[in-house]
Each structure stands twice: as C-alpha cells, then as structure tokens.
C-alpha cells in the first residue's frame, strides 16, 4: 500500500490508499491477513499520519478481519520529549487498544537521522540550513551537546 500510484513496470500487488485522508484504506486491506504498518511522517503532518492515520488503518483492519497488525516504532520513545516521538507513542497506544491482534516492533533509530544531526553540528552549517533540514536540531544541541563528544 502506498499513497502514490504504482510505478511503471511494477509486477507486485499494489494498493493506493492514504493514511492522512483514509481514502482507499478499506479496499487496500480487504483480504489481507497481516498488516505491517511502517508508514510515518516526520514533518508537520506527523500527528495526522502517525496518530489519526494509524487509527484509520486499525479501523479498516478491524472491519476487514485482519489477523495481525504489526506496528514499527522506535526504541526509547517514551523518554524523548520531541513531538514526533510523542505521536509514535500515541500510535502505539492506539494499536494496543485497536481490537486487532497486534505486535509492536521497536527498532533502533535509523542512521540517517544521526547523519542529519551531525551535519547540523554547530559551526558546520548555517543555523538557517539546519532549521530547514532538521527543525529540532537546535534543541538537540542546546540540550545534549555535552554528550556528543562520545561519538
């Protein structure tokens, strides 16, 4: 399932649906035994996609009689105060209460986030570039800068 149309030449089953609007979800999950929910948005749409979208997907899964719902999350999110992690945690709670058998897989953060943060190391780029690339980087450095020497 993707919010985009299938690229030309794709030979696998493809469903177009939107977590943000709910459009196409019932059709996308019909006949599905297991859903692996790995979709997310780290932008301003995070609450709409990660929380509301997860709720919509769970409702569609419940209506379709999906046998298992697997949600991909992040290790340690309950200890990080950033909104994105709060939305992921809220989505986990929805999965737990969603009425579909579930598993939550908390994986470690992807390395590209660390790379992005290191590119915004104070003095490496202008603060404008860093705010555009990684809006929370300034808060990261203000709060945890003493810890980064260990990298």
Structure description:
By secondary structure, this protein is α/β, with parallel strands linked by helices. It has two domains: 1-109, NAD(P)-binding Rossmann-like Domain (Rossmann fold, 3-Layer(aba) Sandwich); 110-151, no CATH class. 41% of the residues lie in helices and 11% in strands. It has six helices and three strands; from the N terminus they run H-E-H-E-H-E-H-H-H. The chain has helices at 25-29, 46-64, 83-96, 111-119, 127-133, 137-144, and strands at 34-37, 68-74, 102-107. The chain has a three-stranded parallel beta sheet, covered by helices on one side. Strand 1 (34-37), helix 2 (46-64) and strand 2 form a beta-alpha-beta unit.
- Overall pLDDT confidence: 80
Query: Structurally, how many domains make up the residues?
Result: 2
Determine and state the CATH class of the largest domain: Alpha Beta
Based on CA atoms alone, the radius of gyration comes out at 18 Å
Q: Any idea what the CATH architecture of the largest domain is? A: 3-Layer(aba) Sandwich
Low-confidence spans: 125-129, 135-151
Could you give me the name of the CATH homologous superfamily of the largest domain?
A: NAD(P)-binding Rossmann-like Domain
Share in helix:
40-55%
Tally of separate helices? 6
User: What gross morphology would you assign?
Assistant: globular
Strands of the largest sheet, in order across it? 1-2-3
């Amino acid at each position: 399932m993707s919010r985009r149309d299938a690229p030309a030449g794709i030979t696998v089953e493809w469903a177009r649906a939107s977590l943000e609007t709910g459009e196409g979800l019932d059709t996308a999950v019909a006949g599905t035994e297991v859903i692996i929910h790995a979709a997310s948005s780290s932008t301003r749409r995070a609450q709409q996609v990660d929380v509301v979208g997860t709720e919509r997907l769970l409702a569609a899964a419940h209506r379709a009689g999906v046998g298992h719902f697997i949600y991909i999350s992040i290790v340690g999110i309950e200890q990080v105060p950033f909104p994105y992690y709060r939305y992921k945690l809220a989505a986990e709670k929805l999965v737990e209460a969603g009425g579909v058998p579930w598993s939550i897989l908390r994986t470690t953060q992807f390395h590209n986030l660390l790379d992005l943060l290191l590119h915004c190391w104070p003095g490496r780029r202008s603060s404008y570039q860093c705010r555009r690339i990684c809006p929370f980087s300034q808060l990261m450095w203000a709060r945890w800068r003493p810890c980064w020497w260990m990298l």
